[in-house]
Every structure is written in structure tokens, then in C-alpha cells.
């Protein structure tokens, strides 16, 4: 997303909520849900706010005033070690939240990639329409023949019920103990508890297709590639074959 738009959402929106919270006379806790992915992947993300070189509201105002083509031309330089505009804006928002620590009982929770529930309300529960969930839905149902990822790399996953429980615990601690102060909580798996990408695909696909016959499971089971060209080519061929097969079936059955 364009830097000006994501900053308006994540920084401007957060500021609006903080200013509303200031008017609440009996507010016990304000928990900001951030992300564990707000720095370069080589940077260990400790439980602290990473200061920015420009104040969040100043950055927001500047980016809103700049012509879009100018901002697009310098976005890469602005991001520096940040992988994308989303993560940059979340780091900015964290700085903004921390600036209110003397006025409001604020704290921050940083989950990793949020996916389906581990236990509550039941294993696999997921009702979100977030892009990562939509992607996995398409992947597990066989819409992709090839996945653009290294199967041996690991993914940091936080089940949605773990995320919610952490938020509730953070709110309880911040609101109950007056000396708890401003705290950042990383809600992420340990280094030895990260999941291989091939395991995510295996578990999700096999669960989704457990009632399918073995031939269909074999045909639809996605492959892996780290090449953008191979990824695009194999999926395009796969979609063409599926379309041809469907059209042939319609012709044979006489169905429109």
C-alpha cells in the first residue's frame, strides 16, 4: 500500500483513538496491537519501542502533503531497513503510543503472523478475511499449483486464541497493577517452535482434502518454488488446464 495511505490508517487512525481515549475518565488499559515484523529480519526485535528519526505525526503530515509521485520516488529511501510500508507505519504507530504513556495506561502487544486457533473456541477456527487467511484458504483448497516460498524456511505463527489471550492478560496487568507501567509484549513462538513452510502446507492441505480421493489429492497438492518465473508459469498452466477441463465437462454434459 502507498506510504501516505498506510500512514493515515496506522498512524492517523491510532492517533484518533488515543485522543478519544484521553476523554475517558475511567479508562483502565489501552492495548495497542502491533506486529513482530516491524524491523529488518536481521534485527532482533526486543520488547522495547524502536525510536524513529522523525516524529510520527510530523511524518504523517509531511507524507500527506507531498505529491504522490514525489513520495513514490523516495519511499524506498524512507523505508531503509523496513521491508514494506506496513511495517514502517506500525513502528511509527508504536512510537506514537509510547508518547502517550504519561497520559494513558498504554501497552503494546506484538503477535507474529496470526493464523487459525490452536485450541479456542476449537482447533482450526478462523473467521477473519485478512489477506494471509484468504491466501491459505486458496492454497489449501488447491487454487495454487505452486507456492512461491522455500519449503525449508520457517514461519513465525501466533494462533489467534494465543493472541487474544495475550491481549487480555496485558490489559488485565496494565489495569490492575498501577506500577506495571508501559510494557511491550512480544507474542511469538520460540526459535525452536517455528514451523516449516512445507509443514503448514501439508497440514492445511491434508485437513482440507481428507475426504477427497487419493488421485485428486495428488493432482492438487501444491509444489514449491523460489523462482518468480516458475511460480507464475506453473500456476498459469494449471489454471489453463483447469479451465479447459471444466469447459470440456460442460460441453459433454450440455450444461452452461
From TrEMBL:
| Superkingdom of this protein's organism | Eukaryota
Q: Which reaction does it catalyse?
A: a long-chain fatty acyl-CoA + 2 NADPH + 2 H(+) = a long-chain primary fatty alcohol + 2 NADP(+) + CoA
Sorted alphabetically, the keyword list is:
Lipid biosynthesis, Lipid metabolism, NADP, Oxidoreductase
Q: Does the keyword Zinc-finger apply?
A: no
Q: Does the keyword Electron transport apply?
A: no
One GO cellular component term of this record is:
peroxisome
Give all residue intervals belonging to the Thioester reductase (TE) domain: 3-167
- GO molecular function terms listed in the Swiss-Prot or TrEMBL record: alcohol-forming long-chain fatty acyl-CoA reductase activity; alcohol-forming very long-chain fatty acyl-CoA reductase activity
Name the Pfam families on file: NAD_binding_4 (PF07993)
One Gene Ontology term of the biological-process aspect is: long-chain fatty-acyl-CoA metabolic process
EC code(s) of this entry: 1.2.1.84
EC supergroup of this enzyme: oxidoreductase
Q: What does this protein do?
A: Catalyzes the reduction of fatty acyl-CoA to fatty alcohols.
**Family to which this protein belongs:** Belongs to the fatty acyl-CoA reductase family.
Q: What is this protein's name?
A: Fatty acyl-CoA reductase
Amino acid at each position: 500500500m502507498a506510504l501516505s495511505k498506510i500512514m493515515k490508517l496506522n498512524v492517523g487512525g491510532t492517533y484518533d483513538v488515543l485522543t478519544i481515549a484521553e476523554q475517558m475518565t475511567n479508562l483502565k488499559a489501552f492495548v495497542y496491537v502491533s506486529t513482530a515484523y516491524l524491523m529488518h529480519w536481521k534485527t532482533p526485535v526486543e520488547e522495547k519501542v524502536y525510536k524513529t528519526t522523525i516524529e510520527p505525526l510530523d511524518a504523517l503530515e509531511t507524507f500527506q502533503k507531498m505529491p504522490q509521485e514525489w513520495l513514490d520516488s523516495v519511499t524506498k529511501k524512507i523505508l531503509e531497513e523496513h521491508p514494506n510500508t506496513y511495517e514502517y507505519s506500525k513502528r511509527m504507530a508504536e512510537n506514537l503510543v509510547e508518547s502517550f504513556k504519561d497520559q494513558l495506561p498504554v501497552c503494546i502487544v506484538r503477535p507474529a503472523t496470526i493464523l487459525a486457533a490452536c485450541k479456542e473456541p476449537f482447533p482450526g477456527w478462523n473467521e477473519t478475511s485478512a489477506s494471509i487467511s484468504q491466501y491459505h484458504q486458496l492454497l489449501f483448497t488447491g487454487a495454487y499449483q505452486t507456492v512461491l516460498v522455500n519449503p525449508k524456511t520457517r514461519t513465525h505463527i501466533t494462533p489467534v486464541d494465543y493472541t487474544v489471550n495475550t491481549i487480555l492478560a496485558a490489559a488485565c496487568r496494565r489495569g490492575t497493577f498501577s506500577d506495571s507501567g508501559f510494557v511491550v509484549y512480544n507474542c511469538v513462538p520460540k526459535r525452536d517452535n517455528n514451523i516449516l513452510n512445507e509443514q503448514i502446507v501439508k497440514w492445511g492441505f491434508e485437513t482440507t482434502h481428507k475426504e477427497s480421493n487419493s488421485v485428486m489429492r495428488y493432482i492438487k497438492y501444491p509444489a514449491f518454488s523460489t523462482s518468480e518465473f516458475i511460480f507464475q508459469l506453473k500456476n498459469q498452466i494449471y489454471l489453463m488446464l483447469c479451465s479447459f477441463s471444466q469447459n470440456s465437462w460442460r460441453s459433454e454434459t450440455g450444461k452452461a
